[in-house]
Amino acid sequence: MANTTTALPDTGAPSRRPVGAGPGFWVIAAAFLVAMAFSTVPTPLYVLYQQRDHFSSFVVTVLFAAYAIGVVLSLFLAGHVSDWVGRRKVLVLALLLEAAAAVLFVVATTVPELFVARLLTGVGVGMLTATAAAYLSELHRTHRPHAGLGRAELVATAANLGGLGVGPLVSGVLAQYATGPLTTSYAVFLVLLLVSAAAVGFVPETVAVESRTYRPQRVSVPELARAHYFAAGAAAFAAFATLGLFTSLAPAFVATTLHLPSRALAGAVAFLVFGAAASTQILFRRRKTRHQLAIGIATMGVGLAVVTLSMFVVSLPLFLVGGVAAGAGIGVLFKGSVSTVAALSSPTSRGEALAGLFLAGYVGLVVPVLILGAATQFVATRYALLGFSAAVLVISVAAGRRLLKD
């Protein structure tokens, strides 16, 4: 378990960190945002890769799946080791792994190289997310020992989902207006990642480093509430499947079906979706869990329906409205799922129960989008999207009926 005291631990080394817990909090928040933003940089660039390397939409989903696989593997193999190795060390390593992925993206000329770069990005993100969130909470508690953790949770949410939205916005604009559309964004983020890693090195450690026998992260299911637990996992599956749609194939839909090839527009669409998800998580964070679930399922369902309709009537405004609504639903639905699992599990097994929830979510991020990508090879995009949306809605409504049942 992480150290939860308000004083910084003695790590056995002399203090050489000029950054205190207060400024360090913002250093970690900025590094978190940069790392998450880098993970979505390729979103508006996939169409350009398709044009350069002449591959199908299904290959786009395979590249996207590589990222999700990297995240899952890293979450379960390394996402928890900062509890005893130290937050700072793991976070710096994760940032350097993403920097290595950025270098690979810059020099990549083949699909296998892109696959490895996306896999490496996922590994870095899997190491980073839980570590950075815990680091923020501990630094906040150290700097403001008598304050609640609401501020730390708010900043973590903004850095996480906000970063996911900033990445495609920046890369889309650079791809549209700067030279080297497939290299400039990665070069910019390479610099930002290296600067972030250097800055994190000056932040004080918040856990006492100790020797411990390594084991992968375990997954546990609360025995007395399995039906609700699996329903929460199904809700996370549906939310991440919708998220995967907007971070993999949606830019291609905009370019082909809507006949709008602007990279800046593709990046802006992803930014709107993630921005809506972050905003609703913040806006509804104090609402009851059942209200979050109901609002999330309804809003995401309406959003998916509108996005699908926009493909049939060829309407960008409808697509944007649907994307924002779907993003808003994703954010609050996943927040409700996390709250459900946290309430169902005991404090000693909460981390393991949440690991299972994230596993369900990342399976949702990979499998439905892979199926959608394969379907587009045989039927028109709009019909493939119709089937995808219908399946996601059925899963989310079925999960909701169980979760909202007294």
Key features?
406 residues; mainly alpha; Growth Hormone, Chain: A; 15 helices; 0% strand; disordered N terminus; transport; transmembrane transporter activity; transmembrane helix; MFS_Transporters
How many DSSP E strands? 0
Helix content: over 70%
Beta-strand content bin: under 5%
By CATH, the architecture of the largest domain is named: Up-down Bundle
What's the mean pLDDT score?
88
**Name of the top-level CATH class of the largest domain:** Mainly Alpha
- Computed over alpha carbons, the radius of gyration is 21 Å
Largest sheet: none
Q: Give the count of helical stretches.
A: 15
The name of the CATH superfamily of the largest domain reads: MFS general substrate transporter like domains
Number of domains: 2
Distance between the termini: 33 Å
Helix/strand/pairing category: mainly alpha
Q: What is the string of helix and strand elements? A: HHHHHHHHHHHHHHH
Tell me, what's the shape? globular
Unreliable segments of 5+ consecutive residues? 1-6, 10-16
> What is the CATH topology assignment of the largest domain?
Growth Hormone, Chain: A
Keywords: Cell membrane, Membrane, Transmembrane, Transmembrane helix, Transport
Domain Major facilitator superfamily (MFS) profile: 23-406
Membrane topology: Multi-pass membrane protein
Main location: membrane
